[in-house]
Structures are given as C-alpha cells and as structure tokens.
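FORM 7B: Structural annotation worksheet

SECTION A. Query
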Amino acid sequence: MTNWSELNQDLVVEIAERIKFYQDFVAFRWVCTSWRSATNIKNFRYKSDQMPLLLLPPDDDGDGNRHRFFNPANAMTCQFCLPEAAAADDNNRCLSSKGWLLSMARDLSLTLVHPFSRAEIELPNVKAFEDWYVNLSNITGKGNFIEKFVLTTSNLLESDFTVMVIYGSPRKLAYFKRGQKNWITADKSSWVFDVVYYKEKFYAVDAVGEIMAWDLSGDDPSVRELVAKMPSEIVDGMLFEKLYLVESDGTLLVVWRRRAYPSENYNSCRGTYAFQVFKVDLFANTWMEIKDIGNRALFLGHNSSLSVQVLDSSICIPNSIYFTDDCWRSYMARRRRGGGKDMGIYNIQDGSMVPYFKGKFRHRSRIAPPTWVERSFN
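SECTION B. Predicted structure
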C-alpha cells in the first residue's frame, strides 16, 4: 500500500491548486507533514471568497459531535465531525478567534481547536483563573464563564501566542501567554464589551465607552492605559446595549449595536434595529461617525470582531455588517429555547437590513450561539 507521505511533491501541489473550498484545502494540507510542507496559502487559488464561515449550533437530533458550517457566499452548508468541540452538556458553547475554536469541557478544561486541521492546543483550566469560583458562581451556566477570546496570531503551532479573554461577572479581562501555568487578570474594574489585538497591543472597550490598552510586552503588563473615551455628545445619556472594537484596513472602529425590546419581558429576545460606526483616533481622542467603510465588510458576534476586504461584491456585500445573535438573555430565555434569531446584514449607508441565513435549527446546547469562524491557513 502506498504511503501518502511519499506521494510526489509536485503532484501534491497540483492537487492542492485544484481544490476549490477552503475547508477542504486545510484538511488536505493536514493529511501528513510532507503535504503540509509542500503546500501553503499560495497554492489556494480560489481566494475571492474571503468571508468567514458561520458555525451553527449542533442539532437536537444529532450526537453533538457533528458541527455544521454555513457559507453565506453560496448559501451552502457542510458538516464536519468535530468531537473536540462537542457540547459536553447544555451549558457549553464554542467561541472563535482567527480560525480557532475555544471549547470548555465538563471538567472545566479549556482547549483551542482548529475545526478543519483538527489541531489542538490545551490552555490552563478554568480553575487557573485567579477568582474562578466566585465568578463561576455569579453567572448562569458555566458555559457563560468566557464571553469572548482574542488571539494574537493564527499560527499557534509554530509561534508564541497570547490569548486574551473576557470572563466572569462582571465581565473582566485575563490573559495567557504560551509557557505560563495560570491565567493572569488584566482588569477587574470594568464591564468589558469587546477586546481586539491592534498594532501589537490589546485594546478593550467597556460599558461606558472607554477604550483601554495593554502592552503585554512591557515591563508591567498588568498596567492599563486609558487611551480614549466616547464623547458625551455622542452618548447623550444613552445606555450602551453592545459595543464592538474592530480593526478595518488599519483603522480602529467602534461599533454601537442598537437593540429594541419586543415586549416588557426583560428576558425576551431582542431585535437589532441599527448600528453606528465610529472611526477613532487614539492619539487625539476624536470620534467620527462614518457611513462608509469602503470595500470592506464587518463580521460581529461572539467571535473576535473582524473585517474582510470584499473582492467580489456578488459574494459579499461591501460597506455592510454581518451580525449574529450575541445577546446572552435571548439564549437563556426559557420560552424561546436558545438564541440565534437576531442575525442579518446591515447596510451602513442606508440602514437597511436583510437576512443571510434562512434555515432553521434547534440547539443541542441552549446557550450555543451561531459563531463566525475566520479562515486561517495553518
């Protein structure tokens, strides 16, 4: 029987260049070490579709090991067996950053999983957080312990990396560097909405519109720096439902998501009716609302916020926001069993909204959100 690793390298490259789908290309590279060394992103010719894939929650009637990925570019859904990210119980979910998933097991262990290469990296257990027990006791369901995570790089297997997470209640920040044994708390004083890795620093935005920065390469990485604050004329006494930080073509943007309650029931599912996008100058602390982000699209939700360049407007709509349902109350609402209903494409210029996913799903895990998974070539 032929050993796959002994296949002629030129033939391996020829096959790789004929693969049309991203997930198939990544899986192909990970058949063996020799195939991975023979191929790289240059061999993937179908790059016009740069949109992330939407990880859908496992179905109730499935075994929990199979995950579906929806591609909004062609409205196709593919299914992968991914037991590493399976829901251990009703209180588990997967979050994503730079193409990797973060999953929590029943024993509170944390693992980074690449969904297509199946590569895994173990992180310190939840019990390695400084105040893990108090925070786990203050939230509804252990699956809500980590709200979001951000990686410094997608190349986790061949380089040092740092993970920053939003965790606990109130939402705080902690980080882990490769080689550490524990999670280190970066901030306890703010209710953090989002965090982004931008120009070699971590930036976070909190519930009052303040942007803070951490330089983890410095002498004292625990010191935060207040670098910007949303002007009072923008806030005007309003309460923020949700703020996002996202880098777009080298510029830092703050996105304000506006939601409405459909009823007086505080725990009912809410609908997004508008977004406001602000371009922030961190040095001058100037905020300018913009209606045009150029030939780019933003993808927001429980994933680490990202933007992509639109190479084909028939595949991805430029100057738009693709959003998923990240309102935790909608997932915990008993009457509606799970969230995932507040999703769509928002036109930044005219404020119109259209759906991108018209399928139906019933959650195996009540708190598992549909999550954008960025394309990464490891």
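SECTION C. Observations
The radius of gyration is 21 Å. Residues 150 and 164 are 5 Å apart (CA to CA).

SECTION D. Sign-off
Analyst initials: ____
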